[in-house]
Amino acid sequence: MTAIERLAATIESRRTADPDSSWTAKLLAKGPEKCAEKFGEESIEAIIEAVKGDRARLTSEAADVVFHLLVMLASRDVTLADVQAELERREGTSGLSEKAARGPATPG
Fold it and tell me: Smallest Cα–Cα separation from 14: which of 3, 30, 28, 31?
């Protein structure tokens, strides 16, 4: 089992934990919207470090992004295996071809 798989399993196990004893449980208890907000905050911090060029800080922030991505996915019952299956489905397909197959983007 990889580190990311162990992390996903830990996040899943914290779903039923006491929110007063677990940051993950606390986030999950606040709902998907809060989990998404936290993921967004961490993503912005990673972007800032990427622009600054500080490799160590970017690495640290990227780990935070991965953690909060997994929490956000868990909040909507999307598993790491679901994401891996989608990546495998796309494997070997040009990014340009994959985007074209989705059709034109619709305005938000």
Answer: 28
Question: How far is it, in rounded angstroms, from Cα 80 to Cα 66?
Answer: 11
Q: Is 1 helix (H, G, I), strand (E, B) or coil?
A: coil
Strand blocks (E) in the chain: none
What confidence category does residue 98 fall into, taking pLDDT thresholds of 50, 70 and 90? low
d(CA 32, CA 76): 6
**pTM greater than 0.90 (yes/no):** no
Tokens of 15: 């779903």
Contact (Cβ atoms closer than 8 angstroms) between residue 38 and residue 71:
yes
Residue 73's contacts (CB-CB under 8 Å, 6 or more residues apart) are: 79, 80, 82, 83
- 55 membership: H or E segment, kind and range: helix 55-75
